[in-house]
Amino acid sequence: MFKLATLAVAVIGTLAPMVAADNCKTGLNYCGYNLLAIGSYGNQVNQALSNAGQPTDDAHSRESIFHCNGGANGDITYTNYCSGGCQDGGSGNSDYC
Known about the structure:
Keywords: Signal. The protein is of the alpha+beta class. The protein is built from four helices and three strands; from the N terminus they run H-E-H-H-H-E-E. Strands 1-2-3 form a three-stranded antiparallel β-sheet. The model is unreliable at about 1-20 (pLDDT under 50).
């Protein structure tokens, strides 16, 4: 029984880093679709949109620019909506409209 418990703890310890979400990089701007791809940002994206009085539909969630404020949770704020589509700025660069 002890070996089974030890095995379970070892497996959980191995899998835990795989499910950990990444945070945005402080100071960069992100398209919503990139935030949603790098971590568990769904609730934060919706909250940032709501705080700015913006709709929380799929288009606004994915095609808006959010600024990464940083912190332990990778806090974000809404910047603007890209009506013509949001563009990926590439690794280490801010996204843009």
